[in-house]
Write a structure and sequence with these properties.
447 residues; alpha+beta; five-stranded antiparallel β-sheet; 9 helices; binds the ligand C=CC1=C(C)c2cc3[nH]c(cc4nc(cc5[nH]c(cc1n2)c(C)c5CCC(=O)O)C(CCC(=O)O)=C4C)c(C)c3C=C; binds fe (ii) ion; Dimeric_a/b-barrel; Dyp_peroxidase
């Protein structure tokens, strides 16, 4: 990384009475790396995947490369994130500010060859876009559409990452992929606390585009959708803002739409041992092609904001088991103090029995951990009630979706938060490992 990392977490002042809600660090000045108007640097057509690689197949970009800057909070603001590597970018790489998440179904009539070709084309396009370049091809003459839709021209790459995942349905009998199904990939069972809308649930494929600029993230998904005309059909899409989890203590902990710091005890994604134990699919997986990948679980979780905003502060804090201002556990003073789940006052647990952190903590779940990487979302206003529509677009990575199922069975049944939320959308996807030089998503999936 070229940017100076933050020396420490945001201030943990230990005060719980006075409001100390600090604003998100402002975005740093844009990097000088900007999108090119013309395609010269990329080349034309299918040669582009190679054009992004230097001699000997070495990727020109490095993880978090480019002339980075540090935001006032100290967070690195490098321009680009490596597309290739052992793991796909967008999981362990630092969370960006914005999300565009879409799922697709393979179109009726599309063949195995169509899908394989599309995935190869998507690879070249995704790699180019993460480098801040336009989708490979040409500008189009007056009688043909341009190969890039154009709305990211002049914008910086914004640390764009494009992460692909495959839903359970892709491994049915349509494309001859049944023998390559990752062993834990199956539809999630019915879970407590959900009332799922099929319009925001499932999908054969998912694309998670994250960037510091919403237009860059949207542009990435839109261009993959355009390249997919005739082969895949969009199923649903979600825009996210205000990342609700940090994936490294170098990032100041953001706040969710309930006003609480979210991500304090998330996995530090730089910790390879912990990632190896809990997040990356390991040697135990019989499907070798997916080792080094992960499973992505998405949940669209609606918040009953009007109800929450009428709740008193003491109850809000009891719901999470943490102070709203500092983010400290109710048994501590600083945000990163470990919660003391045994502490009692007046015969009652200080961190209530039905509090979110008590129920979700690894100490109380046989060490179970997941990597959370969610975003806030809004759908505007409910026309009938006038209520605000929005909440958490929860995304988590883990080495088996069973981890999520185990946690949600507990949370959905006992969490005090349930009074204020409902799970309305869901998805589960196998996320393959990263691509080596010269490899593409089509060949990786079909072998
Ligand atoms: C099934 C997994 C989880 C769901 C669903 C979930 C929903 C959800 N969470 C918050 C807000 C917070 N969550 C926090 C901690 C936390 N949450 C989960 C899991 C799920 N959350 C875990 C594993 C943890 C860590 C527990 C621990 O180790 O102590 C926190 C506290 C701060 C933090 O550590 O991140 C907040 C705040 C909301 C609003 C929400 C649904 C809308
Ligand atoms: Fe949570």
């Amino acid at each position: 990384m070229t940017a100076t990392p933050s020396p420490s977490h945001g201030p943990a002042d230990g005060s719980d009475g006075a409001p100390d809600i600090t604003p998100e660090p402002a975005t740093a000045a844009p990097s000088p790396v900007s999108r090119r108007r013309l395609l010269g640097a990329v080349g034309a057509g299918a040669a582009v995947a190679g054009a992004a690689l230097g001699a000997g197949g070495t990727a020109l970009a490095t993880r978090d490369s480019g002339p980075g800057t540090a935001a006032p909070g100290g967070e690195p603001r490098a321009a680009t994130v490596d597309f290739r590597g052992a793991h796909q970018a967008g999981i362990a790489t630092p969370s960006q500010d914005r999300l565009c998440f879409a799922t697709f179904d393979v179109a009726p009539g599309a063949t195995r060859a169509d899908l394989a070709a599309l995935l190869t084309t998507w690879t070249a396009a995704a790699e180019a876009m993460t480098l801040g370049r336009q989708v490979p091809g040409g500008e189009g003459d007056l009688n043909t559409p341009p190969d890039d839709t154009g709305e990211a021209v002049g914008l910086t790459p914004g640390r764009l990452t494009v992460t692909i995942g495959y839903g359970p349905g892709l491994f049915d009998d349509r494309f001859g992929l049944a023998a390559r199904r990752p062993s834990a990939l199956k539809p999630l069972p019915a879970l407590p606390g959900e009332n799922l809308d099929p319009a925001v649930t499932g999908g054969d494929l998912c694309v998670q585009a994250c960037a510091d600029d919403p237009q860059v993230a949207f542009h990435a998904v839109r261009n993959l959708r355009r390249l997919g005309f005739g082969t895949v059909l969009p199923r649903w899409m979600e825009l996210g803002f205000g990342r609700t989890s940090s994936t490294s203590p170098q990032q100041a902990t953001p706040r969710n739409l309930m006003g609480f710091k979210d991500g304090t005890r998330n996995i530090d994604a730089r910790d390879e041992k912990v990632m190896g134990e809990h997040v990356w699919i390991g040697e135990e997986e019989p499907q070798r092609w997916v080792r080094g990948g992960s499973y992505l679980v998405s949940r669209k979780i609606k918040m009953r904001m009007e109800q929450w905003d009428r709740d008193r502060l003491g109850d809000q804090q009891d719901v999470f088991g943490r102070y709203k201002s500092s983010g400290a556990p109710l048994t501590g003073h600083g945000e990163f103090d470990p919660p003391d789940f045994a502490a009692k006052s007046g015969g009652r647990y200080v961190i209530p029995e039905d509090s979110h952190i008590r129920l979700a903590a690894p100490e109380n779940n046989k060490g179970l951990r997941i990597l959370r990487r969610g975003y806030s979302y809004t759908d505007g206003i409910d026309k009938e009630t006038g209520d605000l529509l929005g909440g958490l677009f929860f995304i988590a990575f883990m080495n088996t979706p069973d981890r999520f199922v185990t946690l949600q069975r507990v949370l959905g049944a006992h969490d005090a938060l349930n009074e204020y939320i409902q799970h309305i959308g869901s998805g589960v996807f196998a996320v393959p490992p990263g691509l080596a030089a010269g490899q593409d998503w089509g060949r990786q999936l079909f072998g």
